[in-house]
Amino acid sequence: MQYVFSMTSRMVTIAITCAVLLCVLLFLLGVEIGARMNHSSPATETATYEARVLPPVAATAPPAAVAQPSSPATADIAALPASSTP
């Protein structure tokens, strides 16, 4: 059985409309995905704002103190290598 396919002006209009609608939807989907990927957390935004607005901290500030273990036994255990056996 032979089937003759003819593209009428109505079919061309429907095909073009669907193609344009598909392109618009794909573009909007890309914009939404890009906006979600570019969105950063509020803490990051605050740090970025402070870095731009606030003056820099003086470079001569003393370094922060390193925390020492509270008990000597903890320091002894931490000093042992992982592969040692009794």
What overall geometry do the principal axes of the alpha carbons give?
elongated
Secondary-structure-derived class: mainly alpha
How far apart lie the N and C ends? 89 Å
Mean pLDDT: 75
Question: Mind describing the biggest β-sheet?
Answer: none
**Number of discrete helical segments:** 3
Oligomer: single chain
Tally of strands: 0
Give the topology string: H per helix, E per strand.
HHH
Strand portion = under 5%
Question: How would you portray this structure in words?
Answer:
It is a single chain. The mean pLDDT is 75. The protein has a domain of 47 residues. The chain has 3 helices and no strands. It is mainly alpha-helical and 86 residues long. Helices cover 58% and strands 0% of the residues.
Give the topology.
Layout: H1 9-38, H2 42-53, H3 72-79
In short:
This protein has 86 residues and is mainly α. Helices cover 58% and strands 0% of the residues. The longest helix has 30 residues, at 9-38.
Which key features would you list for this structure?
single chain; 86 residues; mainly alpha; 58% helix; elongated
